[in-house]
Amino acid sequence: MTPSAQPASPVVAVAKSVPAEMLEGGEIIILAVRPSGWFVILDSLAVLILAGALAAGLKIVSDMPQVQLPIDMRTGLTAICGLVWLQLLIACFRWAGRLYILTNRRVMTIRGVLRPNVSQCHLRRLAGADLRGNLCERILGLGTVKFRTVETQEVPGDWEKISRPAQVVRKIQEAMSRS
Predict the structure, then answer these.
(1) Which of 8, 11, 92, 162 has the fewest CB within 10 Å, making it most exposed?
(2) 100 — phi, psi (to 5°)?
(3) What pTM was estimated for this model as a whole?
């Protein structure tokens, strides 16, 4: 019997999705990650809370006999569900359009699905990488990497809502010290 093949690491799968023309000659990908799947929920949190409040308000007002609403409960809830669905769809596209890449020479942030926007910074121009995170991110074990640069003209975008953020910052710091 032959041992079963191990599934490819998600990092390797993401690294393979990086277009070759984005890399300079001799550049090696050290790390390529996407935001955590929690990104979709956290990015939509305000709309989800608003939708819950609207649904609760609609229920309370529709139970009042003296109040006549221009729409029935079912239509109102359908509209609220449509709003939530649209927000989650937009957040999914925002998640799918984000890719964070660390190479042996630079850090890159790619944002966008139809027209990707690439921001980058050479490692020698980075002054540091700091780990930040709001309460929701910390509860979920996520974090945001904020880059500090020596010069202000070349600023990479923040790496938002990534899993295992301490390991990612450690890899960035190691790459910075080697460059």
Answers:
(1) 8
(2) -115, 125
(3) 0.79
